[in-house]
Amino acid sequence: MTYKLVALDVDGTLLNDEHEMTERTKNTVMEAARQGIEIVLCTGRGPQNSIPFMESMGLEGYVISHNGAATVEVATRTIVHQFEMDRGGLTPFMEYCREQGIHFDINTAFEMYVDHVEALAGPVRYMYENFLMMPSNLPAWEALADPVVKFTAFGESADLDRVFEAWSKWTLPFNMLRSGEYFIDLMHQEASKGNALAQLAAKRGYKPEEVLAIGNYYNDITMLTYAGMGIAMDNSPVEVKAAADAITASNNEDGVHEALVKYCLS
Fold it and tell me: How many whole angstroms from its chain centre is CA 138?
């Protein structure tokens, strides 16, 4: 099968555990693009800290950001599509996090907000620095002009396990998922990587069987099952591997390189 669109998750997939894209993987992605395959990053990150990876490879096109909540054109920073959340519905989740001491941020397509940016320290500040995105102070809702697309809770894995269990018992107006060991994301009910990838593929004229997707975590399952070929990294949880059509090497062993050579370049 000739794949025309390749969707790549970023953290835990395209990047190794040092948050770096190796030269080997970078060169293979670029070679796939030179051969006419369209590359799209499909990530939980926002466009501000995912587009630079595309630019470092000399690629234009699109990034599907915020786990599918906002799709953005690389060259123009134009929002192609976004799933707007009901801000009022976030109030109980914000109150819960404040009461339980769980850090959270609020995301529009291009901006990120927290309660007290000046108080960021320790693991929370380190997390933002690692992901190359420093937030601003959250204004009153009426002063926030742009749609909210994602709410993220961040903390120790065991703490988030308890939060996820508690919120799972609520009547949820949002799509809730674990986007990483230390993250819980809330988004519009229809926002997912799979839905956003399906919309972009249709816009670009590709059939599902012409799409290959590579990912490593629960938030990647919808795109792995949408794509004609869904590939899980070896560092994926067992449920993600079960949802995939194939498994490649881990993110620390250039698994994206291995998959592209096998399925796109050979």
Answer: 22
d(CA 41, CA 55): 11
C-alpha span between 120 and 103 (Å, rounded): 10
The pLDDT value recorded for residue 266 is 72
Judgement on whether residues 62 and 102 belong to the same structural domain of the protein: no
* Cα dist from 93 to 137, 141, 167, 184, 249, whole Å: 18, 15, 8, 11, 37
183 plus 91 within the same structural domain: yes
Digit-coded pLDDT (tens) for 191-203: 999 999 999 999 9
- Looking at 158, 187, 216, the residue that finishes a domain is 187
DSSP 115-143: S-GGG--HHHHHHHHHTT---EE---GGG
Q: Determine the average pLDDT of the residues in 161-185.
A: 94
Domain coverage including residue 231: 5-82+191-265
pTM of the model: 0.93
Q: Which two tokens stand for residue 3?
A: 């794949």
**Residue that the structure tokens 């449920």 belong to:** 239
Which strand (E) or helix (H) includes residue 25?
Answer: helix 23-34
**Crossing angle for the helix pair 157-167 and 91-100, nearest 10 degrees?**
140
CA pair distance 144, 134, nearest whole angstrom: 18
